[in-house]
């Protein structure tokens, strides 16, 4: 589980660092100087519009980037689902631990009370019956929680698998865009996102397929 969380954290940080770097780069200084030296409102508007167009392109917000942004949004949906499932799993495990601890504690107090009062022989049958009931409660509740635990583990595995698959195809697509020279700025995000081929191991085997692959669901 920790490995999956680390993968998702790396993915999120890489995208955030890329977006932040595009805003904080030297291009804004050029635009600011152009705005300060402009002789008319129209020239200021033109400089500002050019800067915004570049940001839209680098943020993959143009129409030509529809499939890319769909993959990005899909991967984040899987991340959010995974985090929600982890929270739910922690709740189930905590409830399971609390239930078992409470049942065992009640049994211990009952046994200790009988020993202190000296009614051990007289109430032995009643005590045995209570103990059996308590043990059944102790085992029945974890059994129900165990099914829920198993189901959550299966859902976690599915979400992690879908995230890995979608993030892989995103890297394949960005790699293809970079190779074709249409979007040179993707080199930076690939360096951060796919450092040491973190997601993408065999790009030459998958790159052609991404051109005809349908958008993620």
Kindly list the characteristics that best describe this protein.
217 residues, mainly alpha, 7 helices, disordered C terminus
Topology readout:
Layout (H helix, E strand, L loop, with lengths): L1 H23 L2 H11 L3 H18 L7 H52 L6 H57 L5 H8 L9 H8 L7
Task: Describe this entry's structure for a reader.
This protein has helices at residues 2-24, 27-37, 41-58, 66-117, 124-180, 186-193, 203-210. Helix content is 82%, strand content 0%. α4 runs antiparallel to α5 and α5 (124-180) crosses α7 (203-210). It is built from seven helices and no strands. By secondary structure, the protein is mostly helical. It has one domain (1-110, 146-203).
């Amino acid at each position: 589980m920790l490995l999956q969380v680390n993968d998702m954290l790396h993915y999120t940080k890489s995208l955030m660092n890329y977006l932040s770097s595009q805003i904080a780069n030297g291009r804004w200084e050029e635009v600011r100087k152009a705005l300060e030296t402009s002789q008319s409102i129209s020239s200021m508007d033109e400089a500002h519009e050019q800067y915004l167009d570049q940001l839209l392109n680098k943020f993959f917000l143009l129409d030509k980037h529809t499939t890319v942004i769909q993959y990005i949004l899909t991967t984040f949906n899987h991340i959010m689902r995974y985090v929600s499932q982890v929270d739910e799993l922690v709740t189930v495990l905590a409830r399971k631990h609390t239930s078992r601890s409470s049942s065992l504690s009640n049994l211990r107090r009952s046994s200790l009370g009988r020993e202190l009062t000296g009614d051990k022989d007289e109430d032995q049958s009643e005590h045995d019956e209570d103990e059996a009931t308590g043990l059944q409660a102790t085992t029945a509740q974890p059994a129900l929680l165990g099914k829920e635990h198993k189901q959550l583990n299966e859902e976690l595995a599915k979400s992690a698998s879908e995230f890995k698959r979608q993030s892989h195809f995103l890297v394949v697509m960005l790699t293809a865009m970079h190779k074709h020279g249409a979007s040179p700025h993707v080199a930076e995000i690939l360096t951060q996102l796919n450092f040491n081929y973190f997601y993408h191991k065999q790009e030459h085997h998958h790159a052609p397929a991404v051109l005809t692959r349908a958008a993620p669901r």
